[in-house]
Amino acid sequence: MRTFTQVLEPEYFQQFRCIAGACPDSCCIGWDVAVDQATFERYQNCPQPQLQKLLQNHVVRNSEPVGGSGYIPYALIRLQDGRCPFLEPDGLCRIQRQWGDEALSDTCAGFPRSYSYNAVGDILERSLCLSCPEAARLVLQEDAPLRFVSAETSITLPENTVDSVETSTALLPVRALVLSLLQNRCDPLWLRLLKLEQFCRRLAQLPPAEYDKKLHQFLEEFTVDIERGELGAMLAEAAAAPELQLHAVKLLLDHRLQLGQVGDPFLRHVRLFRQALGYDAGASPESAALKYQAAYTEYYRPFLTQHAAMLENVLVNHVFQTLFPFGPQHSLQLERRGIYENFLLLALHHAMLNTLLIGQAAYWRRDCNRKHAAELIQSFAKTIGHNRLFLSQALGFLAAANLNDAAGVAVLVKN
Q1: CA-to-CA distance for 79 and 59, rounded, in angstroms?
Q2: What is the pLDDT of residues 320-369, one digit of tens each?
Q3: Is the pLDDT score of 1 beyond 80?
Q4: Angle at alpha carbon of residue 196, lines to 193 and 201, rounded to 5°
């Protein structure tokens, strides 16, 4: 266990309250429930005989990786038809109800909170995962840019639940520049991502051993390039390729569905996407692309104009939560990747989500609203963002399809 006295968190963090039985997409449905060793041992000695029998029957030791990763939880709750057996009909947890909050595992007690540690200033950073409907609502209801606040506190956490970054001296200045790019609303979001691609590509070429001597100059030089406007003008000339963009995302979606463990909320959104673009009626790629482009122009672009902050805040939350662009060097849940790979994952998340939202706009047309978008973003985060096997395979797909460079990123993100 480790106690932290300084935290950095988004302004929305303190507003979060679990809505429990009122939740439209319970975190107790659709994915593995990990149980740490201390909790498992406590369950074996539960003082309530009836509950103890259920715990012994449904909480089992585990020796296999989950989610297509190298993470091996000490134990797992054996699901029944994709649901935690302790989830009661009213949406509440039987363990929590009968034994109290202290009986919850680290996973259940912490979700949707995400923790990371920045050694500079000895600061604990915390945020919320958008796979939780209430967390998604808090993040996506804001039209203002996400802001972060620091505070003094006292919070004790198991050390293995806190991600950490080794390049901590570089994280803050690099993150400041990344956020300045992503939150610059003078540029369309696709152009902000192309500028970020250039930044991450160049940063990846700077050896970490030279950060102390060269990072400050590197950041200054890139800032000057941005301010001159020549880089932005060059990137703005990238051609949009809606048919290729749609085809690539559809292939990725089809593959994710084949992997299984997909909840009903996300399946509903995929069905709307397929129906609206004519895939269910056997539409050709050319025909689907025409509907896709028409939906973007007539319905989605006006929606984005009215709700410009939504996708920006999704990206900014991801950047903060994942210690982007370095990623966590010590984590049970996240794989260690390079700077440019972490950027590609960010661009991939945006491309898939943006494409699904355009398909949703094709279905709802002028009735497309913030609620529809928030529900899609939440179910997407739950289905895509937490599946490490799919994310690794998706990076392989981008490489095989030659979409893992500046030109490929432009195909994925530009409309």
Answers
A1: 9
A2: 999 999 987 665 566 789 999 999 999 999 999 999 999 999 999 999 99
A3: no
A4: 130
Total-model pTM: 0.92
Query: What's the CA gap between 174 and 180, in Å, rounded?
Result: 10
Closest-CA residue to 116 (of 208, 8, 18, 1): 8
What CA–CA distances, in Å, run from 169 to 74, 112, 122? Answer: 33, 27, 11
Give tens-digit pLDDT for 75-86: 999 888 888 999
What does the pLDDT read at residue 40? 93
Q: Distances in Å between the alpha carbon of 44 and those of 32, 53, 57, 79, 86? A: 20, 9, 10, 18, 16
Q: Are 199 and 178 in contact (CB under 8 A)?
A: yes
Cα 326 versus chain centre, distance: 16
Q: Are 226 and 232 in contact (CB under 8 A)?
A: yes
The span from the CA of 157 to the CA of 159, in Å, is 6
Cβ(374)–Cβ(142) below 8 Å: no
The H or E element containing residue 157 is strand 148-157
Distance CA 16, CA 356 (A): 27
Three-state secondary structure call for residue 24: coil
Let me know: does 99 contact 48? Beta carbons within 8 Å. yes
Q: What mean pLDDT is predicted for residues 227-254?
A: 94
